[in-house]
Amino acid sequence: MGAGxxxxxxxxxxxxxxxxxxxxxxxxxxxxxxxxxxxxxxALSDGSTIAASATWNSPTIPGGNGVFRNAFPDAxxxxxxxxxxxxPASPTAPATVTISQLPAPFATAGYDVYVYVTGDVTAGTxxxxxYVIGGASFTISQTGPTPNFAxxxxxxxxxxxxxxxxxxxxxxxxxxxxxxxxxxxxxxPVNGIQxxxxxxx
Length: 201
What we know:
By secondary structure, the protein is mainly beta. Helix content is 6%, strand content 32%. The protein has a single domain, classed as Jelly Rolls, CATH 2.60.120. A six-stranded antiparallel sheet has the order 1-2-5-10-7-8, with no helix packed on it. Mean pLDDT is 90; it is low at 1-8.
């Protein structure tokens, strides 16, 4: 890409529908390329589709492309999902992902939203990220150098890890906001989002 004065980005490979990834093992991930876009007729893990939609925006600013890629050697499934990510670069311009028109069984039963988060952090650097859905928020940290992907580790509040879970989300839509912290080279990566219904299942 190279927009906004940042480095040229080598796009991550799109996931094949057969690839399995995530803490809650699932196939048929909906690939969402670029820093801004939308998808309709989202796929469920069994390959069927629903009328729900997704829109996302990771603002491009001078020195920030809106998207980036880790240097993990490419491999299908988890590694491929965790390689590319939304990469907002300003505390005043968070990335947003909105899921709309979830069907009644989701809205009625409630659901958990898994957010996968791993950025390319240089050695000796610590970054803080804040993620918000409705009234719930998580602030986590990551310290470089970023290791190759070696499994999932839930991030405790204020601690380090590569995924978080918003429990008991309800309603037919929600918006995730990913806000960079303060300091040098601020970021707040979003590698993937997984909706699991009913909540706690």
